[in-house]
Structure formats: structure tokens, C-alpha cells
Amino acid sequence: MPSIYDVAREARVSIATVSRVFRGTAPVSAATRERVLAAARALGYRPNRIARALAEGRTRAIGVMLPTDISNPFYAQLAQHVASCARTASYDVAVGLPPDDSVESFLETTAALEERQVDGLLLCASCSRVAAYAARRPQGACPAVAVGCLPTVDVPLVSADEEYGGYLITNHLLALGHRRVAFLCAPGQPGTAHPQGREHGYIRAMDARGLEPLLWHGVGTLESGYTRVRDLMAEHGDLTALVAVNDAAALGALRALYELKRPVPAHVSLTGFDNVVQGVYSAPALTSVDLPVAEMAERAVRLLLSLVGCDGTVPTRIIVRPRLVVRESTAPPRPH
């Protein structure tokens, strides 16, 4: 099996230079880097990760906590981008999935990841769970970064300005002429990023026009979007637009409205939130709020690895702006 010494000899560089190339710990010229990598490929050399971890005092792995219910495509996209960013930085990813939706289960799964000696944790979970983790976090625990939480949690975070997103998409419907607009809210203990922000944005937009908000709770998944919207339309048949807390709920609502013969957008305009790929191919294509999930994942991984490296200059709050994506599911209300 070829060693680092063989690579250095083949590339005609020092052992320290080979080490710098594979660790990325110091600048190396592009020509030298390519010569070292070419020599490693020719020899079939692969760095010994265990030896490297022992030398650095790190495992080169980060833990990623996800919600119990990962049917929401947003989390699949987020996990995919996190894994890609970590791999680019030569880190492995260990995923934690709590067996149920309780806070205790979340904390136990987080502890299990920490026992694997991960260098840091990304917490992709509801604000209540992140707050519980922060309250019980032991002294000397590995660095942690929350993704998608309200800025009130006592953990460094990367999040989107979701209140602005809720305001943006509600205002889009109001500008089209809708006045009877309901918001499909997540359950009381949400697993999504922070629907409170989205809900507050909706309320702010309605209040600005002097309109009465209508919050319809218990919606957050494909199935609940389908069942709860049937109940909603039975009680409030005069609604002309719905703002769903996420795209999964919107897609369930889309099916319910089709079966109720209230087609979108001819009878009811419908919006989502997250801009997942399934909404692009629904019929009609879903108007949504795009959360820059790739940017959020990249900045979260970079922030976490900066904290792992004990860089005290890194920011602890990174907020990114979402954008409105208008497709086919919204239109002006039908004239009476």
C-alpha cells in the first residue's frame, strides 16, 4: 500500500507539502497541488483517515439532526446540500433521526451523535427542540449550529427571514385582488423550520390592508393539507386564496380542491413555501417562496467548521432573504 512518503517522492515535493494538499491547512500553488494529486492517483494513494483524525484530534465528521418526519422534501434537499458541502471540506456526515416527535427523543438522539465524537452538530429541527438542547447542553460540548430557527434560540444559527417570506407571498395575493385569504398553519409543536415567522408575515400583510386573518391549524404535511383543507372549505366556502405553511401542505390542498371542484387558480389561488422541486411539476405549477436551501446549507457547514476550528471572529447569526417565485397556481379572484 503506497504511503505519503511514496507520493512525496513521486511528486518531487516534501512530505509536509503532501500533507498540506490533503488537509487543506495552508496555501499550495495550483501547479504543486495538481502534481501531488496526480502522483496520488497514479500510486493509488488514499489518506489514512484514522491516523489523520488522531493527529488532528478530530474525527472529521459532523452530525446532522433531522426531524422525525422527513417526508417534507425541504429536509431531503437540505440534507443533500449539507452532505455535499461537508464532503467538499473532507468531512463525513452522521445523520440523527429521532424515533418519535418528543423533545426527549430529540435530546437522546443528539446525545447519541455526540457520543460518536462528531466534531460538531447541525440542528435542523423546530425552535422548541433547539431551545431544549441549548438549555441542557453540557459544558464542553461540541459546537452546534441551528438551521432554520428563530434568532431567539441561544445557539449560532443560519436561517431565512421567513416572516418576510410570509409577508411577500401574502402581499402577492392581495395585490391580485384577493381579500378572503386563509393561512394553513402547522401543528402546535412544529417540525418545520419556524412556521411562526411565516404566520406572522401573513398576519402583518393582512393587517396592513385592514383585513381579518384566518388561521387554520393542524396543517403541515401532504396528508394534513388534503384533509384539513376539505374541512376548511366546508366551513369557509367564500375563501378565494390559501397560503400554505409549506409546499407539502399546498400539494395536499391542491388535490383536495380538485376533488371539491374548486380548481386552482380558477376558483381558488394557492401558494406554498420552500419551493421544492415537486411544486414545479404539479398541475398547476405552484407559486411559492424560495428558501435558498443550497446557500443555507453551505453557510451552515462553513459556520460550524469555523466554530470547530475555534475561530472567534465568526458571526453567530446569519439571516438570508427568501424570494417569491410566481407560477401558475395564483391568479386574480373570479368576478362575482
Describe this structure in words.
- With 336 residues, this protein is α/β, with parallel strands linked by helices.
- The protein folds into 3 domains: 4-47, lambda repressor-like DNA-binding domains (434 Repressor (Amino-terminal Domain)); 56-160 and 292-321, Response regulator (Rossmann fold); 162-291, Rossmann fold (3-Layer(aba) Sandwich), CATH 3.40.50.
- It contains 13 helices and 12 strands.
- The strands form 3 sheets. Strands 2-1-3-4-5-11 form a 6-stranded parallel beta sheet. Strands 7-6-8-9 form a 4-stranded parallel beta sheet, sandwiched between helices.
- Helix 9 (195-208) links the parallel strand 6 (181-184) and strand 7 (214-216).
- Helix 1 packs across helix 2 (15-23) and helix 10 packs across helix 11 (247-259).
- The chain is elongated, with a radius of gyration of 24 Å.
What's the name of the CATH homologous superfamily of the largest domain?
Answer: Response regulator
Q: Give the strand content.
A: 5-15%
Average pLDDT score = 88
Largest β-sheet summary: 6 strands, parallel
Secondary-structure element pattern, one letter each:
HHHHEHEHEHEEHEHEHEHEHEHEE
List unreliable stretches of 5+ residues. Answer: 189-193
* CA-CA gap between termini: 79 Å
Provide a count of the helices.
Answer: 13
Number of strands: 12
Give the neighbour order of strands across the main sheet.
2-1-3-4-5-11
What Rg do the Cα atoms give?
24 Å
Helix percent band:
40-55%
Number of domain modules: 3
| CATH hierarchy: architecture of the largest domain | 3-Layer(aba) Sandwich
Text of the CATH class of the largest domain: Alpha Beta
Could you tell me the CATH topology label of the largest domain.
Rossmann fold
Gross morphology is elongated
Global structural class = alpha/beta
